[in-house]
Amino acid sequence: MINFYSFRGIVTMISDFFTGQNGEGEGCYQLMSVENEVGATVNFVVSPTTYFVDHAMVAVGDRVTGYYDGNAPVPLIYPPQYRALVMVKDSPYQNVKVSYFDRQLVSSDGQLRLNLSPYTQMVLTNGQLFSKSPANRDLIVIYGPATKSIPAQTTPYRIIFLCLT
């Protein structure tokens, strides 16, 4: 189980990230610097496997949330550098939660509970339909309004299954 952590802020820089000495993979990896409202900065390594919600194109000046594995080893440098698993370009029209959801469809932090409807679209990261239960899985949940209870409850618009290995 991945322990999803997030960092939200404004993209201040996007540059190529070099991974090999012989130029293999050149242009396939990027370093995306994100600064939050209190001035803290995080660098995200964006790879070809990083999932961008809605396949959004991100540019300098965009507000984004990057999700990474809080249990993964990281270099001891400043600013911190994390391998981005999921990137979300903020939108006023939808909310996004990336988390492990248990058998009762409650997120691992206990903040969101899912109520499925026949209209909830369930897909893999490649866009293909997913027909199994979303319980006990890592999910990207895209939703609108939610209750103010704890956990908040919502009926998601779309659930994207993260089949990370």
List the helices and strands and how they pair.
Blueprint: E1 4-16, E2 30-35, E3 41-46, E4 51-52, E5 63-69, E6 81-83, E7 86-89, E8 95-101, E9 112-114, E10 121-124, E11 137-143, E12 152-154, E13 158-161
User: What's the CATH architecture of the largest domain?
Assistant: Beta Barrel
Could you give a short account of the major beta sheet? Answer: 7 strands, mixed
CATH superfamily of the largest domain: Nucleic acid-binding proteins
Spatial strand order of the main sheet? 4-7-5-1-2-3-6
Tell me the distance between the termini.
Answer: 10 Å
What general outline do the C-alpha atoms trace? globular
What is the average per-residue confidence, as pLDDT, rounded to a whole number? 93
Question: How many structural domains does the protein architecture include?
Answer: 2
Assembly state of the chains shown: single chain
The Rg value, from CA coordinates, equals 16 Å
The total count of helices amounts to 0
Reading off the top of the CATH hierarchy, the class of the largest domain is best stated as Mainly Beta
> If you consult CATH, what is the topology of the largest domain?
OB fold (Dihydrolipoamide Acetyltransferase, E2P)
- Helix/strand-derived class? mainly beta
Order of helices and strands: EEEEEEEEEEEEE
- Give start-end ranges of low-pLDDT stretches: none
Helix content: under 10%
